[in-house]
From TrEMBL:
Subcellular localization, as worded in the UniProt entry: Cytoplasm
Keyword S-adenosyl-L-methionine: no
General function of this protein: Could be a nuclease involved in processing of the 5'-end of pre-16S rRNA.
InterPro entries, per the entry: RNaseH-like_sf, YqgF, YqgF/RNaseH-like_dom, YqgF/RNaseH-like_dom_sf
Record keywords: Cytoplasm, Hydrolase, Nuclease, Ribosome biogenesis
GO biological process terms on file: rRNA 5'-end processing
EC number: 3.1.-.-
PANTHER family in alphabetical order: POLYNUCLEOTIDYL TRANSFERASE, RIBONUCLEASE H-LIKE SUPERFAMILY PROTEIN (PTHR33317:SF4)
Domain of life: Bacteria
GO CC terms in record: cytosol
Domain YqgF/RNase H-like: 1-103
Annotated protein name in UniProt: Putative pre-16S rRNA nuclease
A GO molecular-function annotation: nuclease activity
Length: 138
């Protein structure tokens, strides 16, 4: 059963997919999106779901450091709800605190240029979200 991992932002959605056994997460792509128009982004996600035979979706939930959910967390919850309705798949939320920071540090330590980091940071954050979820399940 493959799982789709998403790092949902206001302008982009980082996408990762698990292997069939649910052990590892691999980055797939970063989808550009309009904040108030989800149709194109969801259409692309539906294509990826079909292409990779996805059975479940994990969406990163950006919580504040004190555990509360702010406006961006609420937006991610709304996105997850709409995605579940459109795809018919179960969508789980996963605490993503510091996933983007961790992804940035990993890319900096790998000596990836700032320009290249900007292109892959959301995809890497999606990998970290999904890998955290997979590790917890196993």
């Amino acid at each position: 059963m493959k799982i789709l991992g998403l790092d949902v932002g206001t302008k982009t959605i980082g996408v990762a997919v698990s292997d069939e056994l649910g052990w590892t997460a691999q980055g797939v792509e970063t989808i550009k999106r309009e904040e108030n128009d989800l149709d194109e982004a969801v259409e692309r996600l539906e294509e990826l779901i079909a292409e990779h035979h996805i059975a479940k979706i994990v969406v990163g939930l950006p919580k504040n450091m004190n555990g509360t959910i702010g406006p961006s967390g609420e937006a991610c919850q709304q996105f997850a709800k709409e995605l579940s309705q459109r795809t018919g798949l179960k969508v789980e939320m996963w605490d993503e605190r510091l996933s983007t920071v961790a992804a940035e540090r990993m890319l900096v330590s790998a000596d990836v240029s700032r320009k290249k980091r900007k292109k892959v940071i959301d995809k890497m954050a999606a990998v970290m979200i999904l890998q955290g979820y997979l590790d917890r399940q196993n």
